[in-house]
């Protein structure tokens, strides 16, 4: 029999607090952000081996840049960028031990949630995401969310600092975490509003040259004729940072009906995105791809000219599929917090969440 209680997350800091990551995402950014910074951690556990992937993993990001990684195959907490290798003595060993503890709790939690769904076998995933964003205006946003089998399970409301269930099977977890005896949300408030941003500032300072570099986007437009209509494609690639605004314009008006990929990572640390729109051109119509990015002094407007349309877009689409496959180190994430957790004394070198309670 599985235990019926889920372990709450514990965040790190001078005194480890409960914490867990949220859903993955690589979401499309439709507007150019200013110099804000974010830090996110994703925890993922699967109930059984699958496709050669680790059964458990922890991945940390700063501004969509993977900085640390732990998984059940390597059994070690490791840096993913050169500037993280300069962390103080003891950092990697301490966080490795914390990650091992998290792994045990997450394995317990996926079994617990399976029981809630009356599932005794099969492949299932339990995920968590937590983190914070420090905006350029000084404001702070924190998040702590969990999911099961790709669906949202429970999430922290940072207005009331209580957990909100998004499916019936999560109600017992939310009730426990919100109970007067436990108050997981209130305990996580200090981490999300203070400790998380302290570490974020520390990491940004170490990796500023990498995180804040600006690379101009390259843009190509093309069109595929389909009878009276034309499918326009705007491929924007090789840009950094990730935030970008891309849209099709008809004369001086925005084309509101369009398709877009997520902003996908390239192997060199830059990004790419493709935005397409199906239109019916008429005499006098002028279509252009509008691109705004932090690296540009002025937005770009690349005009589509029918005679220049070519099959190069096919190669671009294929490349996107390949990159998407690589980038689907996508996370599923969610985790829960429950009664019965223990605080663990740790030093300031701890930057990974420590989970010690059942869900």
In words, what does this structure look like?
- This protein is of the alpha+beta class and 359 residues long.
- The chain is 21% helix and 30% strand.
- It has an eight-stranded antiparallel sheet with strand order 4-3-2-1-5-6-7-8. Strands 9, 10, 13, 14 and 15 form a five-stranded antiparallel sheet that branches.
- The longest helix is centred in the first third of the chain and has 26 residues, at 91-116.
Proportion of strand residues: 25-35%
User: Which range best describes the helical content: under 10%, 10-25%, 25-40%, 40-55%, 55-70% or over 70%?
Assistant: 10-25%
Q: What is the strand arrangement across the widest sheet?
A: 4-3-2-1-5-6-7-8
Mean pLDDT: 81
Order of helices and strands: EEEEHEEEEHHHEEEEEEEEEH
Silhouette? globular
Cα distance, first to last residue? Answer: 15 Å
The main β sheet shows up as: 8 strands, antiparallel
Query: What gyration radius follows from the Cα positions, in whole Å?
Result: 22 Å
Count of discrete alpha- or pi-helical segments spanning 4 or more residues: 5
Q: Stretches where pLDDT falls below 50 for ≥5 residues?
A: 10-34, 309-349
- Structural category is alpha+beta
Total beta-strand segments: 17
Properties at a glance:
five-stranded antiparallel sheet, alpha+beta, 359 residues, single chain, 5 helices
Produce a short descriptive summary.
This protein is of the alpha+beta class. The protein has helices at residues 91-116, 171-178, 184-206, 208-211, 312-327; strands at residues 37-46, 56-62, 65-71, 78-79, 125-134, 140-148, 151-157, 162-165, 218-226, 229-239, 244-250, 253-254, 259-260, 264-265, 271-279, 287-293, 300-303.
